[in-house]
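I hope you will forgive my troubling you with a question about protein structure. Could you please explain, in whatever detail you think fit, how the structure tokens follow from the sequence? Thank you for your consideration; the sequence and its tokens are set out here.
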Amino acid sequence: MVNQNILKIRKDLDRLDDQLLNIIKKRTSLVDKVIKNKRYKKDIIDKKRISVILKNISKKSKMRNIDTKITNKIWINMIKAFIDYEFRNFKKK
């Protein structure tokens, strides 16, 4: 039998997941705008930009006292997922 505290915490996690889904939807909308402004498929992967993003996330995570291994893994996977999304949705001009 699951403890009542755990059930309440899980409900809070579910609400947080809903908020994350809304944020992902907003991020996808912004990525759609980026895709429209890229001229060539080769422009999709920007290694310098990825490096800057990961460094910034690491710094911000440390400032907020968040485990950097967690945020690094999340951002690496999110970047990969959005790169895949860009390739699938890129239209030649």
